[in-house]
Protein: siroheme decarboxylase
Organism: Stutzerimonas nitrititolerans
Amino acid sequence: MQLDSLSRRLIDRFQHGMPLCAEPYRAMAEALECSEEEILASLEQLERSGGLSRIGPVFEHSRAGASTLVALAVPVARVEAVAARINSFPEVNHNYLREHDYNLWFVVTGPDRAHLDALLAQIEAETGLTPLDLPMECAYRIDLGFPIGDAP
């Protein structure tokens, strides 16, 4: 995916620190010295091309409830079906296929640990696969952004 200059500047500037105001897209446009329409068009293009999955906050899970990293050892022939079922749970975010015996990795977030335990039990009952539950003990660094910079 080739990014235009505005898209690069938009991503660099607003991966962190989205304006918290009544008209955030207007504030973004002012910061990037362009029109609100250009911001919206750029975001729409990023979404259409698969470069943008969502716009929204990332909450500190320990303050908003409970969260855990989960891995499943899914037979290759079942990966697509199991991934689709996992994705259907609203508590699931970040679902990835990885090269390992434990090949499907995802994050589950809920209001409390009991909710997560019930969900993991449901996943095991429905899939016949035992979730490897890996709750975070200590966060050393969590940063979901990275610099895009100028076009190569």
